[in-house]
Amino acid sequence: DLTMEVPVTVREAMAGGTITVPTVDGRIRVKVPPGSQSGQTLKVRGKGALNPKTKQKGDLLIRLVVKVPKTEDKEALDAAEKIERLYQGDVRAGLRL
User: Fold this and answer.
1) So what's the pLDDT on residue 12?
2) What is the spatial distance between Cα 27 and Cα 47, in angstroms, rounded to a whole number?
């Protein structure tokens, strides 16, 4: 298997979409499901590295990394505030050391 981190936008993570990613054989299109989370892994079968012993290709594991824009734009921050209200409860409620 071959693992890679792929950045996605907030909109792509929330609404889903199709992204283009490089592979050992060229670029492919991959569907990002709606509601995807940063750190979530998508598996693309048969698009990973070639196993020299078995002569079979492994899977491509795509770890999504949600990229948040750095901005002080009021409209963008207002949109972020609207998104904040969509969370149900404390997102760190189960966090332990």
Assistant:
1) 98
2) 10
Question: How far, in Å, CA of 73 to CA of 93, rounded?
Answer: 30
What is the per-residue pLDDT for 20?
Answer: 98
CA dist 68 and 84 (Å) reads 13
Task: Label each residue of 23-77 as H, E or C.
Answer: ECCEEEEEEECCCCCCCCEEEECCCCCECCCCCCECCEEEEEEEECCCCCCHHHH
In which domain, by residue range, is 79 found? 2-84
Decide if 96 is inside a domain.
no
Task: Identify any residues that bridge with 50 across adjacent strands, giving them in sequence order.
Answer: 57
Give the count of domains, the chain.
Answer: 1
pTM of structure = 0.87
